[in-house]
């Protein structure tokens, strides 16, 4: 990515773009209270309602991957670009296809990500022919995606840009205008890669977590029923709200246990050593890539007894409230912690709880809870029965 965007950026560029993203997240409503947060909650609920209508219309068991990709993709796309799409829009289908396939293929090309010199061998080496094809597909997808982004940007500029934008495209475009004489890092290239990072990372990890959550709830009916009982007591016949979160510790615990037992990013985001260092007797030279192994933290029996067992009670304290755990890092760790953590928690809570409020979930006993590893750890193809609750 040439050090563009935010995921692959480093140094001063990364610090500046991180400040841009965090500052705008706060201004968009990622705070505890306020009208803007209420708007975000309302937008999430619109996506939830579309998902529930799709589930109600379905007959028999359902593979939720494409449903979730559409509704979650739209919620996140609206925050990033200020735009939503109809499900059958051809451009939207292309964007979703690039996101789904690109995530899988980049994961397959893992050796190239961690041994960068291999990318120069893919054209001629008999040992690496498939990686060359993968990289070509990814590059073509990136180019087409960026053309779409630029078209959306042009359409926004032809309208009357907001003084106080409610999405990242508007905020970035405002900075481009402000810095027209000396753009610095606010260029069209940076725009393309930053928007891709914000949308792609936000959609894939949340969608994958929800797919795992629904699968584990279907596999463990007694835990599912405890969550539904809790939701019924708190919400009654009304809709769940973000303000209900403190009163739904078991729902929070089941989401957290899903994130623990199936870390969607088992390998964390790469960090870099700024200087020579020693850790536990090992020398880490300046410039080394340092990758936190999230899977090892979450499956460590010292911190999580019987780690292979799905047990949300480990996140419930003696007082019956949700218990935070130190050895639990679903949103990464260090300076490169996920900047959209608050937004992701909103999505998981409202979508996860909102589906269980309306449906009981069942799945065939033979369905596996093993995963496939790409950039993310995804469930193997499966179908779940969503049975409307009386």
Please describe what this structure looks like.
It comes from Menopon gallinae (poultry shaft louse). With 390 residues, the chain is mainly α. The chain has one domain (11-388): Cytochrome P450 (Cytochrome p450, Orthogonal Bundle), CATH 1.10.630. It is built from twelve helices and eight strands. The longest helix is centred in the middle third of the chain and has 32 residues, at 188-219.
Summarize the structure.
With 390 residues, this protein is mainly α. It has a single domain (11-388), classed as Cytochrome p450 (Orthogonal Bundle). Helices cover 53% and strands 6% of the residues.
Task: Provide tags for this entry.
oxidoreductase, globular, two-stranded antiparallel sheet, mainly alpha, single chain, Cytochrome_P450_fam2, microsome, 390 residues, Cytochrome p450, two-stranded antiparallel ribbon
